[in-house]
């Protein structure tokens, strides 16, 4: 290489390095980029976004919640039934392929691009074989959640009591249930065994060991509901609102901004590629707890648009968009009520509660339809491609509802000194460890009899085969 060329290369390298140092020297902007965007990551949100206090104290139970738990002097918890989303996971194979394509585009640019200089140092470390697997951070999510629930419900999650674990067949759910069980065991037995200078092990507690039961009928009902698969999952027209928003003015503006930041032509990008860049920002915050250089591509206004894009998909595929989305979850809701009924029957017959805690591990796609079935987070107007600005303050925000490790917990109590036999058994519901008001009132506690009466149509009329099975020779609807 000629001396002059070497000099020019050295100067170029120094310039690029100075640019990178300048970006890093911004400190506040670089460090907070992911944090500034984190409220808008939708279903790719880390659990701490819903509970910010956990960033400071991971085992904190947060500020006191008025009316929770019910007063110990008169009410005793009988059973806890939890439906839990798996912990933090890696991207799916499809997302990784899109990211690889985008990363290749960035690498093929001619010349330097100061606006996205930090990306020149970012290495594509995701591999297709990661395909949605539980990350180490996800195991930590589950262990911490187990320890907090044990602290919240010491009478239910107690040593020498038997718990039921149910999971979808997906490895991220099975591994989540294993990590939760390990965390629970350590919470219940760790202190005693540490005093004896022994490491807490599951093998010394056969009552908790047991096999984790795989039940896709409950945890992945959406796969087994033929009408949902035909009318929504495999119906190209079902997501037309999502498709229209991808090509609408709001997304066009985001695409143009990101293309400009990457020194690419706008026609080299599309909504899917821009969204995967945004998701990469969220994945790296959740998995590695870092602010990825991909985050620097987006402003808060961009993030709001991309959050809406994600919520449109959840709304039309898992929420209120189509009735079959929520009705398919009736089999899970019926299972929850049946298990609570069993505890009531055992209590009335003065029998020990067979399983004080039933812990089910599934997906965002498990929880979102169930919450819609129960009437939670429903807006007055449906989410559509053309009413983005009307929904700036919407209730349906998937990141606040079903982040990683999201959990919906039903707590059944037996209460003395009640005026009516119907009030003897009461229920509270928590979402992500915070009390939920029942959709029809501002109350956070209700009699179990009243709860069943409110959902009697679901309990009595929603038979999974009637809801989901297709008649013979059925054809797909438009």
What does this structure look like?
- With 478 residues, this protein is of the alpha/beta class.
- It has a domain at 33-90 and 134-237 and 322-468: Phosphoglycerate mutase-like (Rossmann fold).
- The protein has helices at residues 3-25, 28-37, 47-50, 53-56, 93-107, 136-152, 171-195, 206-209, 216-219, 221-224, 226-233, 240-246, 249-262, 271-288, 300-317, 323-327, 330-348, 364-373, 398-401, 448-454, 456-461, 464-468; strands at residues 75-85, 163-167, 213-214, 357-362, 407-415, 425-431, 434-435, 446-447.
- Helix 12 runs antiparallel to helix 15 (300-317).
- The radius of gyration is 25 Å and the shape is globular.
- Residues 1-29 form the signal peptide.
Helix count, DSSP H or I runs of 4 or more residues = 22
Number of strands: 8
Q: Give the name of the CATH architecture of the domain at 33-90 and 134-237 and 322-468.
A: 3-Layer(aba) Sandwich
Q: Give the SSE order as H and E letters.
A: HHHHEHHEHHEHHHHHHHHHEHHEEEEHHH
Class by alpha and beta content: alpha/beta
Strand content: 5-15%
Helix percentage? 40-55%
CATH topology value of the domain at 33-90 and 134-237 and 322-468: Rossmann fold
The CATH class of the domain at 33-90 and 134-237 and 322-468 is identified as Alpha Beta
- State the end-to-end distance: 65 Å
Shape: globular
**CATH homologous superfamily identity of the domain at 33-90 and 134-237 and 322-468:** Phosphoglycerate mutase-like
Cα gyration radius (Å): 25 Å
Low-confidence stretches: 1-31
Major sheet, described briefly? 8 strands, mixed
How much is the average pLDDT? 89
